[in-house]
Specification:
Layout (H helix, E strand, L loop, with lengths): L16 E15 L4 E2 L3 E2 L3 E19 L6 E6 L2 E2 L1 H13 L10 E9 L9 H20 L6 H15 L11 E4 L13 E2 L5 H4 L2 E5 L10 H7 L6 H21 L2 H20 L10 H17 L4 E4 L5 E5 L4 H12 L8 E5 L5 E2 L9
Helix pairs in contact: 2-3, 6-7
Bound molecules: ligand DP6.
Length: 365
């Protein structure tokens, strides 16, 4: 039990009911978290860019009750969703020591995404960080806890990690690191912001080419578990540590080409690890490979710094600096869109992190 993060009980005399809300973005890992141990601890450090247009909005309506137990209703995209509700309830139950005050409340949680869920865009990252930020706001409103802005984000990251590892990184603007590494003051239990980034990366683009919006055949959680029997696991963790350290320097110096090489190597390593798990599985689609080939040919022909990465899914994240947007846009339209499901692309970029909100733009109810 992480004593620093334990929560307080509800105090008498506060509001009887009300609502809180957060919009929280997804993030794209450049160094991938793949493999975990113990209670959601990463086998290697990871580093991500926080996104902007791929986000979840979560609103929690609370009402005091005296039933002294967890009580929630969960609506996803305006509809009751028992599957997600059970997952959230299990998370709340397991970690109740960090927010005991919720046993005095009934919570109606409504969540909507700006992108298709389970499509390789880390929907658990945005949704779980949004939920945990709501819990933090509730804690501040209804108990005697008061947190400085940085401690609030630290605990939000800690809680998000317990819900979904990659979610720990979504609470910070621009870029975050999670997992211990000797070269930097990072932690396994929560993520921290990566502040030393060169300006070229602060406006980096990540256009998400939706190859398929079908649900993944193998969840990330199952994929992490398969790393336990993967014969390459040890070498992979050592490699991730080395690449992480190189990337820190590259991000600071602004070396876009070196960045692109690591981003692509990490993406292909991630999928190679899936292919050599037992049982093996493939999440890339034929169009994923076609797009990769097109990107590499375009880069070679035009000598432009356009790179890709992948999450645990078939969709391509197209990474490039803001300065070449006018050259990349026609490439997407004329070459890449034909490989996308319904010509769908989410034009995203490095973003400024979560925001507390009272107006819900994605409200489906
Ligand atoms: C490939 O965070 O979704 O996106 O901790 O089991 O919820 P759980 O897994 P999750 O794994 C994300 C894996 C990844 C790489 C990354 O985001 O670092």
């Amino acid at each position: 039990m992480a004593v620093d993060f334990l929560g307080k009980d509800i105090v008498a005399g506060g509001p009887n009911q009300g609502s809180v809300g957060w919009r929280s973005p997804s993030n794209i890992a450049i160094i991938k978290y793949w493999g975990k141990y113990g209670n959601q601890l990463p086998q290697n450090p990871s580093l991500s860019f926080t996104l902007s247009q791929a986000y979840t909005e979560t609103r929690v309506d609370y009402k005091r009750t005296d039933q002294n137990d967890i009580s929630i209703d969960f609506l996803f995209e305006g509809k009751s969703n028992k599957n997600f509700e059970n997952r959230i309830e299990a998370f709340l139950k397991k970690n109740i020591a960090y927010f005991p005050f919720i046993t005095s409340l009934h919570l109606k949680i409504e969540s909507s995404n700006s992108f298709p869920h389970s499509s390789g865009i880390a929907s658990s990252a945005s949704s779980m960080s949004a939920l945990c930020l709501c819990l933090m706001t509730l804690e501040q409103k209804l108990t005697e806890s008061t947190y400085s802005p940085s401690t609030l984000l630290k605990k939000a990251s800690f809680l998000s990690r317990l819900a979904s590892g990659s979610a720990s990184r979504s609470v910070y603007p621009i870029s975050a690191i999670w997992g211990q590494h000797h070269a930097v003051n990072s932690h396994n239990e929560y993520a921290t912001p990566f502040a030393k980034m060169h300006s070229v990366f602060k406006t980096f683009h990540d256009d998400i080419l939706i190859v398929s919006k079908e649900e993944k055949k193998v969840s990330s959680t199952a994929g992490h578990a398969l790393m336990e029997g993967n014969p390459f696991a040890k070498a992979r963790y050592a490699q991730a540590n080395e690449r992480f350290e190189s990337l820190l320097e590259i991000l600071e110096s602004g070396d876009v080409e070196a960045f692109g090489k690591i981003a692509e190597d990490e993406a292909l390593t991630l999928h190679a690890l899936m292919m050599c798990s037992d049982p093996s599985y493939v999440l890339m689609e034929p169009n994923t490979l076609s797009i990769i080939n097109e990107i590499r040919a375009f880069r070679e022909d035009h000598k432009l710094p356009v790179y890709f990465t992948l999450d645990a899914g078939p969709n391509i994240h197209l990474l490039y600096p803001d300065s070449i947007q006018n050259e990349v846009d026609p490439f997407i339209k004329e070459v890449l869109l034909r490989y996308c499901d319904n010509q769908k692309v989410i034009k995203d970029h490095v973003g400024s992190g979560p925001q507390e909100i009272s107006t819900f733009t994605l409200d489906k109810s």
